[in-house]
Amino acid sequence: MAIFTPTNQIRLTNVAVVRIRRAGKRFEIACYRNKVMGWRSGAEKDLDEVLQTHSVFVNVSKGQVAKKEDLVKAFGTDDQTEICKTILAKGELQVSDKERHTQLEQMFRDIATIVAEKCVNPETKRPYTVILIERAMKDIHYSVKPGKSTKQQALEVIKQLKETMQIERAHMRLRFILPRKEGKRLKEKLKPLIKVIESEDFDEQLEIVCLVDPGCFREIDELIRCETKGKGTLEVLSLKDVEEGDERLE
């Protein structure tokens, strides 16, 4: 005897559900655990690694697939892959209290790690340990925002920590080689973007080794390329200007 299985039902297991309400109806997608936050932060770029199926549901746990007319009314399209992307970006991840707590703890640790990797004590040029940054984040009562990427939040944390401790982004060490003709004029334009000039040699060409804030790198790169019409060169000598050893504060 054949067993009838409704064609609008799909059974899935070990699922993380992302839910959104549109046009008075509930829509859900089935994702792999621990992949949703990776997609939202940009760490995961392969949609197939995030979605268990490209189907849109009204109820994942019951396997009930959304009707085409409901999708068109709510999203303006019946392209399920595009709808899945919308729900991934704007929907609410359904997790248990325990899962949410674990997830927030991991994000807190990831943010602290990014801050520790990017920053130093400006007086000693030594990096801070992740444990020390975590402690400092707790001292300022930093609250993790699940919908924001860890990188964005790390930049927020750096701003807030500057009010309570000696901390700044570690400088990048760069070398510019500029054509003699544009050298002096371009140096004046670059000056506001340079923190420290370590060496300068003006012979056939102008060669400068300097420290800059990482946030200025793109602007410096564009300035050199545009002003020299591609004749100037920019070389990254080191991503972080730091002294050896960790900064440890009691």
Automatic annotation (TrEMBL):
KW Calcium (keyword) present: no
InterPro entries: Ribosome_mat_SBDS_CS, Ribosome_mat_SBDS_N_sf, Sdo1/SBDS, Sdo1/SBDS-like, SDO1/SBDS_C, SDO1/SBDS_central, Sdo1/SBDS_central_sf, SDO1/SBDS_N
GO biological process per UniProt: cytosolic ribosome assembly
First-listed, main subcellular location of the protein, grouped into a coarse class: cytoplasm
GO-annotated cellular components: nucleolus; nucleoplasm; spindle
Localisation per UniProt entry: Cytoplasm, Cytoskeleton, Spindle; Nucleus, Nucleolus; Nucleus, Nucleoplasm
Keywords assigned by UniProt, alphabetized: Cytoplasm, Cytoskeleton, Nucleus, Ribosome biogenesis
Domain Ribosome maturation protein SDO1/SBDS N-terminal: 14-100
PROSITE patterns recorded: UPF0023
Superkingdom per UniProt: Eukaryota
Record-annotated Ribosome maturation protein SDO1/SBDS C-terminal domain positions: 172-239
Residue ranges occupied by any Ribosome maturation protein SDO1/SBDS central domain in the UniProt entry: 109-170
Subunit structure: Associates with the 60S ribosomal subunit.
Family per record: Belongs to the SDO1/SBDS family.
Function description: Required for the assembly of mature ribosomes and ribosome biogenesis. Together with EFL1, triggers the GTP-dependent release of EIF6 from 60S pre-ribosomes in the cytoplasm, thereby activating ribosomes for translation competence by allowing 80S ribosome assembly and facilitating EIF6 recycling to the nucleus, where it is required for 60S rRNA processing and nuclear export. Required for normal levels of protein synthesis. May play a role in cellular stress resistance. May play a role in cellular response to DNA damage. May play a role in cell proliferation.
PANTHER family for the chain: RIBOSOME MATURATION PROTEIN SBDS
Protein name: Ribosome maturation protein SBDS
Organism per entry: Philothamnus irregularis
